[in-house]
Amino acid sequence: MSLDDLPSRLRHVRQRIQIACERAGRQPNDVTLVGVSKGHPARCIQELASRGLTDIGESYVQEWQHKRVTLPGDLRWHFIGRLQSNKARHVVSKVALIHAVDRPSLVQALERHADAPQDVLLQVNIAGESSKSGCAIEDVQALLDRVSGSSTLRPVGLMTLPPAVENPEHARPHFRALRELRDRLRDRIAATDDWAAARFSHLSMGMSHDMAVAIEEGATIVRIGTALFGNRPTE
Ligand SMILES: *Cc1c(COP(=O)(O)O)cnc(C)c1O
Questions:
Q1: What whole-number distance in Å separates Cα of residue 114 and Cα of residue 140?
Q2: How far apart are the CA of 200 and the centre of ligand 1, in A?
Q3: Residue identifier of the C-alpha nearest atom 5 of ligand 1
Q4: Is residue 65 lining ligand 1, measured as CB closer than 6 Å?
Q5: Is the pLDDT of residue 143 over 90?
């Protein structure tokens, strides 16, 4: 993958987002593109940042820490990976958004180490796959109550990784289910707190192969790796 290819890949991804938004009657500005750079060197991020990519997703604490000191301070970092509780302190209050909060023990660890308000998404195991992390659907309300009771963590929506399928259409029911779950939870929050309900608006769903379907189903954040950076060298 050469650095020279990156600008045209970014243009192409932005185009795909725009076309999906048009089809869905949505505004492209309502969908945040997070460039998922795990496995790719900092200079690739730098190249896309210089073309206007502002939001970067990382999955591994050490790799992110290394890139963070190398790259300009105005990037908005998203921690999208599974976060071990004993590493929570390295991440909390240092990134724009933590995508994968899925269990009370992690909430507790994040809370203990937060020194500034931290926006978080609850990761939902939307298809109930035994191999996947993410909170079970029936436990999401309790997890949301737990996060909502925190003085530093702010729940701003849901995230999911649907089952890997060849045909993106097969992911559609899972994306739709996540949106409906967000709507139900938001209604319940609205019964007691309009501000918190308005904030609970995000759906982080959609990757390189299924971003169009995810956007049609209401994604507000898409996490795009391969389509931007190419195949991951380490996989
Ligand atoms: C790697 C990764 C992505 C990006 O996937 P691509 O198929 O390369 O776009 C998105 N979300 C999560 C949680 C990831 O780990």
A1: 22
A2: 23
A3: 225
A4: no
A5: yes
Tokens of 80: 């999208």
pTM of the model: 0.97
Does the pLDDT of residue 235 top 80, yes or no? Answer: no
Supply the DSSP string of the chain, one letter for each residue. Answer: --GGGHHHHHHHHHHHHHHHHHHHT--GGGSEEEEE-TTS-HHHHHHHHTTT--EEEE--HHHHHHHHHHS-TT-EEEE-S---GGGHHHHTTTSSEEEEE-SHHHHHHHHHH-SS-EEEEEEB-TT--TT--SB-GGGHHHHHHHHHT-SSEEEEEEE--PPP-SSGGGGHHHHHHHHHHHHHHHHHHHTT-HHHHHH--EEE---TTTHHHHHHTT-SEEEESHHHH-S-TT-
Q: Is 135 in the pocket of ligand 1 (CB under 6 A)?
A: no
Taking the centre of ligand 1 as the mean of its atom positions, its distance from the CA of residue 184, in whole angstroms, is 27
Report how far ligand 1's centroid is from the alpha carbon of 224 (Å). Answer: 6
